[in-house]
Amino acid sequence: SEGTLSMDKKAFGSIDKGVTIQINQIKGVDLTQKQKDAVGDSPVYAIDIIADDENIKTFNGGKITVTLPYPGDGIDGSKITVWCISDGKLEKFKAIYSNGCVTFETPHLSEYSIVVEYTVSFQGLADYKVVSGSDIQIPDYVPEKDPDEEYTYVFSHWKDQNDTILTPGTVIGSDLTFTPVFSYTPRLYDVTWKVD
C-alpha cells in the first residue's frame, strides 16, 4: 500500500542507522469486541520502521506524521478518525483528510485503522457515533406521548430527517436524526343525557 512517513527532528535523531519503512494494508486482523465496535470493517494498516531486523516502535518522544491513501467520492473529512488498535487496546488520533489522503501524527508505530464515523441521534436519548457501513441499533427505549382531548397515542416506529423508517439492518451512511412516530386512537367519552 502506498503511503508516506515524515519525522520531526527528535524522532529522526533517535534513529542512528539505515531503516526500511513498510506500510501494508492487512486483512484478517484479530480484534477484540471493543475494537470491532470502533472500527467495523474499516481498512487496517500495519506501519513499521525496521533497522537491523529490529522493529522500531517509539522514537524517544519524537513524533511521526503518517499519510495514507483513502480514496472516495464526497467524503466529509470531519467524519474521519484514525484508531490505533494494537495489543487489544484502542487509541484515537485526530486526522486530516485532503486530496484522497488521510494524515495523522503519532508518537509510536503499530496497526491503525481509518474510520468514517457518523452521528446517530434518537429524540430523548444521547447521541452516539456509528462506523460507516454498520447497522444502526434500534434502541429498547419506547417513547411516550401524552394524550390530548381528541386522541391517545402509542409509539409506532422511528423515522429519520428524510422520513425514512428505521428497520432492522438499516446501514448508516450519513448523520441521522430519528424522531418517534405515534399511532393514535380517538378518545371516547361517555355522554349522559339528563331528561327532566
Account of the protein in words:
The protein has two helices and twelve strands, in the order βαβαββββββββββ. A hairpin with a 5-residue loop joins strand 9 and strand 10. The longest helix has 7 residues. The mean pLDDT is 87.
Which terms would index this structure?
twelve-stranded mixed beta sheet; 196 residues; 42% strand; mainly beta; single chain
Number of strands: 12
| Helicity range | under 10%
Which range does the strand content fall in?
35-45%
How far from one another are the termini?
94 Å
Report mean pLDDT, rounded to a whole number: 87
Give, in order, the helices and strands: EHEHEEEEEEEEEE
Radius of gyration: 26 Å
Structural class call reads mainly beta
Silhouette: rod-shaped
How many helix segments?
A: 2
Largest sheet: 12 strands, mixed
Give unreliable regions as ranges.
none
Question: What's this model, at a glance?
Answer:
This protein is mainly β. The protein has helices at 9-13, 33-39; strands at 4-7, 20-26, 44-51, 54-56, 64-69, 80-84, 91-98, 101-106, 111-122, 128-131, 151-159, 176-186.
